[in-house]
Amino acid sequence: MRDLPITYGVGRAMPGAKMLRQVAGQMLASPACGCWTSAPLARFLATSPRQIPADANFHSGSFSGSDQTRILITGGLGQLGVGLANFLRKRFGKDNVILSDIRKPPDHIFHSGPFIYSDILDYKNLREIVVNNRITWLFHYSALLSAVGEANVPLARAVNITGLHNVLDVAAEHNLRLFVPSTIGAFGPTSPRNPTPDLCIQRPRTIYGVSKVHAELMGEYYHYRYGLDFRCLRYPGIISADSQPGGGTTDYAVRIFHDAIKNGKFECNLKSSTRLPMMYIDDCLRATLEVMEAPAESLSMRTYNVNAMSFTPEDLAQELLKHIPEFQITYNVDSVRQAIADSWPMNFDDSNARKDWGWKHDFDLPELVTTMLNSDTRVAQAN
Ligand SMILES: NC(=O)C1=CN([C@@H]2O[C@H](COP(=O)(O)OP(=O)(O)OC[C@H]3O[C@@H](n4cnc5c(N)ncnc54)[C@H](O)[C@@H]3O)[C@@H](O)[C@H]2O)C=CC1
Ligand SMILES: CC(=O)[C@H](N)C(=O)O
Questions:
Q1: Domain edge (last residue) among 10, 39, 58
Q2: Buried residues in 269-304 as b, exposed as e (16+ CB within 10 A)
Q3: What is the C-alpha to C-alpha distance for residues 76 and 105, in angstroms, rounded to an integer?
Q4: CDD domains, per this entry (predicted)?
Q5: Nearest bound ligand to CA 156?
Q6: Residue 208 falls in the annotated catalytic set
Q7: Do 4 and 94 share a domain, yes or no?
Q8: Which helix (H) or strand (E) holds 218?
Q9: Alpha-carbon span 355 to 224, nearest angstrom
Q10: Does the structure show a pLDDT above 80 at 308?
């Protein structure tokens, strides 16, 4: 799938030199705050493939006449989206949070609140949903994760990169507040791994990681260039009871609970000593809402590391043994996942999130294990 060439006005190619002059002119006119005003924006975005009329009001949301937060979640049927929808519905009301995906939802999800089909590769469909439902916030969860991404690079590139471009454009055009999750996978073997700070070398070696660095940079670019309210957290591996992981490197830390409860044993696809940052889903969802609600002036950056704990499969097994004395763990290493894990952070430095908007996790390893085992009915149902 290829992006269309940049057009100027309706369907006419804008000569490169003219476009550069226009951009340079706008840059010189930009205010000291570093954010760009909407008038030049409207003109510049009119040069995008989206064919917005040159005199359109760029921030169409500004005359929607409602302060109600109306939320769309893309890729919402994965490990994290349903939990996010439930969490946000408690805060903003059931009907104000629309879950979307390209898959068919199970009955209980379909009946728990608004659900809509949305393929992020279909820009017009995305725009129609945003306009018809007067969306104000967008949580962009669609992605192919690290291991499945390596198994299908063309699809990962399309969903994670072309899809992101669609989301960025629709968010910029309709003045949405946009949350895009990044990941520990946005770092690579040349990054400092213990701990990994917010700002350091990022040379990931997976298509997933490359697409997430691209998302961080594009989101920040749209923020500084067009004033898009882009907010991004780099999640560690997320551990949840209700939902299955979608094909990542940290999946073992979810599957271990399911197998421990069902069979009393687990075969781990990472080495026993592989240390990775992890977080319980309740902390992840709270961090996501907190950064979305943080006053803009408290955000010294637009992409933050967030963390809770860091452990190895062996540490996790030892903690499980305290609750299930007969539990057994064996190792059968998957070379692709192991290579990915060996290039990722071992500990994540999230001091900027803690300083800027007060991030504080609730769950360390002992609380995580107790909570996951106490959710054993939900763990069993998710199998
Ligand atoms: N689960 C984790 O441990 C972590 C997740 N994240 C990020 O959080 C977000 C959500 O993660 P998960 O729920 O775990 O992912 P997941 O892989 O479980 O779910 C992704 C969803 O995207 C959907 N999708 C795929 N192609 C699509 C398309 N063309 N249009 C619309 N939807 C499409 C899939 O159907 C799936 O339901 C992702 O962006 C991921 O990178 C970041 C770090 C850790
Ligand atoms: C940490 C992630 O981004 C994800 N769970 C994966 O392992 O790919």
A1: 58
A2: bbeeebbbbbbbbbbbbbbbbbbbebeeeebeebbb
A3: 10
A4: TDH_SDR_e (cd05272)
A5: 1
A6: yes
A7: no
A8: helix 207-226
A9: 22
A10: yes
